[in-house]
Write a structure and sequence with these properties.
7 helices; two-stranded antiparallel sheet; alpha+beta; 23% helix; 11 strands; globular
Length: 342
Amino acid sequence: FTLTAAMLDHFSLQSVWYGPGTITIPDPLCFTNGGPWTLSNASDSEAGIFTLAQATAHSVNTIFAQLVTAVGPDKVAEVAHDMGIRSPLHAPGYPPPCSITLGVEAVNPLEMTNAYATLAANGVRRWATPIHSVTDASGQVIPQTGSKGKQVIPANDAALVTSALQGVISGGTGYPNALLSGWHPAGKTGTAQNYVDAWFCGYVPQLATCVWVGYPKNDTTPLTNVEGYSAVYGGTIPARIWHDFMVQAIAHMQPKDFPTPSTAGYTVGPPTPAPIPAPSPSKSPKPSPSPSPSLSPTPSPSPSPTPTPSPSPSPTSPPPTPAPARRRLLAGAAIGSSARPR
C-alpha cells in the first residue's frame, strides 16, 4: 500500500535509495513514544543501496520507512481503504502511524485478498461476494448485474506496483516457493515479529489469493519447528500453500500477462539522495622479477575499481520490531503481513 501511494505521487521504481541497517526518522510526524522513530532491517545483509523495486522485492524496512515519510501515512491508509481494506488501520482518536508501512494494525485474509484483487484488476475494486450464482425454481441461472467495480487506482499505477511485486516472486522473498510454471505472478510475503504469523498474498490476472498461517488460539505462540522449518516465514509454508492451491485453481486457465506499465513521468526519488558507493582502492601490481635479457616484461595492470555492490538480502530473514508495532501487515516492503486475522 505504501508502494501504491508512492506510484500515485509518481515515484520511480528505478530511483536509488540507501537503506542502512538501522535508521532514525526525525520527522515529528513519525515520533514514537515521544521520540524519533528508530527501526532496523531484518538483518545486516539487507543494508545497502537499492532501487525502489529491489527494496520491495527484498523487503528493506529502512527504505520503506523513508518512503512512508515522503508520501505520508495518512495517504497510505487512504490508499489501503480504497483498495479494499475495511479495518481502521489506526487507533481510535489517533492518525495512522508511520509504522503502518511495517504493519501495526490487524487485518483479515478476506480484505487483504480484496485489496490484492484490485491490483490484479488493474486498479478496479470489486467487493468480494460469497454468491457464485443464483438459480430459480426450475434450475435456470438468474442473470446477475454484479458489481460494476470502481476504478480506485489508475491502471498504470496498479501495473507499476504489479511489476514490482513480480520481482518478489522472481527473485525476492517469495522465490522460489511461489513460482508458477508458465505464469508470471505477483505477490508479497509477510512475517510477524517472533514468527507468530506468516502470510503470502499473490495474484495472476484472473485470480488473487491470500494465505495466512498462525495459531488461532492467540497471537503469541511462535511458528517454530513446524513441518521441518525451524521458523516459518511468509516465503516458506504460506508461499508453498499459495503455490499448491494456485496450481489447481488456474489449471484450466490460459496464462495471461499483466499490462506493461509506462514509466514516463515517474521521476520522483528519495528526499535524501543515496550516497555514491566509494570505489574499492586499486592495488598496486606486484613488482615483476627482473626479466631475463631475452624476454620483455609485461606489467600486470591495476585492477579496475569496483563499486560496492548492493547486497542481495536473504529472503528468509526475520522481520525487526517495528515501533511500536506488535505485529505487521502486508504492505510494501518487509513488509508483508503479519497482522493477526480476526
